Amino acid sequence: MNESTPSRRVALFVTCLVDLMRPRIGFAAIRALEAAGCEVIVPEGQTCCGQPALNSGDRDHAAALARRTIEALEGYDHIVIPSGSCAGTIRCHYPEILADDAHWLPRAQAVAERTWEIMAFLDEVCGWRPEAARCEGHATYHDSCSGLRELGVKAQPRRLLKAVEGLTLTPLAGEETCCGFGGTFCVKYPAISNAIVAEKAAAIEATGAGLLLAGDLGCLMNMAGKLHRDGSKVRAFHAIELIAGMGDGPAIGEDA
Amino acid sequence: MTGFKTRADAALADPVLKLAVERTAGTAEAKRALAVEAFPDFERARDRAAAIKDHVITHLGHYLERFEANAIAAGAQVHWARTADEACRIVIGICKAAGARTVARSKSMLGEEIGLPHALAEAGIGRIETDLAEHIIQLADERPSHIIWPAMHKTREQVSALFRAKHRAPHEEESIAAMAESARRELRSRMLGADVGISGANFLIADTGAVCTVTNEGNAELSLVPPRVHVVTAGIEKIVPSMGHAIPLLRLLARSATGAALTQYTTFYTGPKRPGDRDGPEEMHIVLVDNGRTAMREEGLAEMLRCIRCGACMNHCVVFRQIGGHAYGGTYPGPMGAVLTPALDGLERSRDLPHACTLNGKCQEVCPVRIPLPTLLRGWRERSWREGLEPVSARWGVGLWASIARRPRLYRVVAALAAGSLRLLGNRGWIARLPLGGGWTRHRDMPRPEGRTFMAQYRKEKRR
């Protein structure tokens, strides 16, 4: 990057799930964004985007959390998120939730326009490719639904992963089929969710890949949890971990 | 009636159901994909189809009045029904006036919606279902499980056994062709002897007063032309301004449903037999049914009235593919059913349906008229929440969590505590049993949190 180019000021929204379950993904995000020439800030006021309230039908709490999150994320060039579903909530649903609020709607729109799923951001906005990332392995990739259908995240992660040295990618049969996570769906309708993820796990096994990659921790926990319960040896990572050169660390469910 | 979860559990435990659903929906999915690929500019065709439907839904009264005038001019009689009961009463009245002992029915989901088979039975009128799948359903005394393939839940092996048990001269050779022949032998003579033919409508053409039906078996034609009276029951949203508007919708309908370019039979019925016609019914009655549609338009569900009943949403739905159609409990299953059933049967009775969805968006992606099904399902969830129909545990859970998430400092403390205590439950990276989280751990393991939260680690690192 040319030194005279002003660097992008990027707010990282870590997501509640990454914060709680797998901070490595947050650190991988920072590493990749900095390698792409961004100045990364982690705004203090962030918690959860409110998606569980939104999808439960609790619009008041969803709106309250949207306002709180907008306040925390305003004033940056971009907001980058290592999750398609949280990025989709902010980009597609915040303006809907606050549509009747003359004060908050413009603020929601301003934040929504600047919000990106991390791999789409690195690829489309930064035009960046990992240079020093290495990971010897055979992987397959699952397209998480919100990123795919709300944000058009499809080719970007594959382009980035292609630049990871040593990694081969085998297409997953039904890669665009939902894994059955669905946020609270998986605990409200556990039997249906299980039937769906069992098919997904079988498709993953059938690729012969040793690594499962995706861009959303919720889906990854669902698929990895099913694979582990079934005694599979497949190891699961958020794709950004490999892209940031952190594919040598513990997989989901492995102790450091 | 049992609840949704009980029905879903029973469906999940039935491997034959799974096989039956997978055979048909899997084939439909693959064929639709090929048809869409071969279609020049499918996305623009969807835009146009949605625009046509939106236009008529906005100007419904105008086009219905034009349709009525033109249908009457063509010699048909037009009836208006506000409710399902009213529609059934009108149809029964027409049948009785015609002195009908038996009616031949061509498959119609609207007929199912208004409970017409039941109403005919109560009135003592014999009913011959002429669609092959509806014939199977009638023999088995069941309800349709799919809007295109009512007998989707049955395997061909089950159908073969059913025919052997119920047909007068069942097939000898074990083949699909022989089974179809058996059904033909059973149905043909009885069809031709029916007093009244009853059908639905895929489209109502406003500027000609014509009614369009599509079938693959020709059963509509054979059951509607020979009887003395033809009765059509149609939802008011089936209207299109002209033939020129029906064609683009027809092009999408068959492709979205089965992947075929067109159905085997696409027929336009314009009035009864005219002087000089060689055949046709002497009377044609068209019953235009509202049954909640006007209310849907006013209550934020106008986009649902675009639906042309192709079934693509359910064929591509991960939930439908696991549980089939009966588990939904309404006339219409799958994503479109989860939107329609609360409107038709009441939200209180169908509260589960809008929730039993992962909101993955696939249904919207394949819908030929771009119905934003996930948004409409979310709308039902919001209404359910507002009306206090959600369980207390969910209300408390979301409320408590939201009040913590609104306070970042408190949230950090709670997240740190949660990460720490969840870690204690784990064994070598994984948690096999989670208190209060049985929904998750009954079927899968939960990865143990890494340790300290991201925020805690990040702060510490920054201070260094």
TrEMBL record, chain A:
GO cellular component: cytosol
InterPro entries: Cys_rich_dom
Pfam family for this entry, one: CCG
Molecular function GO terms recorded: oxidoreductase activity
Cysteine-rich domain sequence ranges: 10-91, 140-223
Descriptive protein name: L-lactate dehydrogenase complex protein LldE
UniProtKB/TrEMBL annotation, chain B:
Keywords tagged on the record: 4Fe-4S, Electron transport, Iron, Iron-sulfur, Metal-binding, Repeat, Transport
Keyword Transferase: no
Domain LUD: 64-289
Lineage top rank: taxon: Bacteria
PANTHER family: LACTATE UTILIZATION PROTEIN B (PTHR47153:SF2)
GO molecular function, one term: 4 iron, 4 sulfur cluster binding
Keyword Electron transport assigned: yes
GO process annotations (BP): lactate metabolic process
A Pfam short name: Fer4_8
Residue span(s) of domain 4Fe-4S ferredoxin-type: 303-371
Protein name in UniProt: L-lactate dehydrogenase complex protein LldF
InterPro entries: 4Fe4S_Fe-S-bd (IPR017896), FTHF_cligase-like_sf (IPR024185), Helical_ferredxn (IPR009051), LUD_dom (IPR003741), LutB/LldF (IPR004452), NagB/RpiA_transferase-like (IPR037171)
